[in-house]
Amino acid sequence: xxxxxxxxxxxxxxxxxxxxxxxxxxxxxxxxxxxxxxxxxxxxxxxxxxxxxxxxxxxxxxxxxxxxxxxxxxxxxxxxxxxxxxxxxxxxxxxxxxxxxxxxxxxxxxxxxxxxxxxxxxxxxxxxxxxxxxxxxxxxxxxxxxxxxxxxxxxxxxxxxxxxxxxxxxxxxxxxxxxxxxxxxxxxxxxxxxxxxxxxxxxxxxxxxxxxxxxxxxxxxxxxxxxxxxxxxxxxxxxxxxxxxxxxxxxxxxxxxxxxxxxxxxxxxxxxxxxxxxxxxxxxxxxxxxxxxxxxxxxxx
Length: 301
Prior knowledge:
alpha+beta, Pseudouridine synthase, Archaeosine Trna-guanine Transglycosylase, Chain: A, domain 4, 3 domains, 4-stranded mixed β-sheet, 22% helix, elongated, isomerase, PsdUridine_synth_cat_dom_sf
């Protein structure tokens, strides 16, 4: 009789292929890892490729906290055309000659979209408006508004500006860009708003996520590679990479395990989620400081 293999607790960093939804990747991973306990931290649109962080088994409890971390993207913005979805997946709604747009004008418009800004997500996003997904309302033909939300664009860099001609013959400009931003920032909304500011319209034609928090493309694996060999980042290693680390002694480890709220050192005040480790290296819990004491966010050890 073949012994039952146990799926390890940890993160799987996937290089998501184009055409897959984040849910498609989760479904595929359930088959590869032979467990139902798989989730993802932060979605990627079907068109986009790159880093998608999955949690397996107990590591699913980390995902909500990992989703809040900074993200980095490489993409292509086409100036001169608007689409229904603000990306290449949707039908074109307008075309305008963008050949006269100067690099200086592009840089000025990009600067306005850098820093702490208010952003209106795309109408075909997964944002919920009164409990209903925005994309469903849009699909049903509803007329509605999405309130602007504060996001942070730490950097928005244009690497190259290329003259191109769209399929309908319109002269357009393709910008190769990189963006570092907070969770909840829509890159296709940046493309739309950049085009709107320049008066010619804009949408996203390609997007690759190169980083989620500390997890980069160089540690990501394709689904085909994972099918051959499931590579799981142990939960302790994943937590140590993503959160401030607090090593406690045996006494405190036992108290924490018994639900006692510990006094937290001043250095962790306002640090957000903190990973607590036992002397033997076990990852015990994710906690945050509340009135000087630990408040458990998720317990592992």
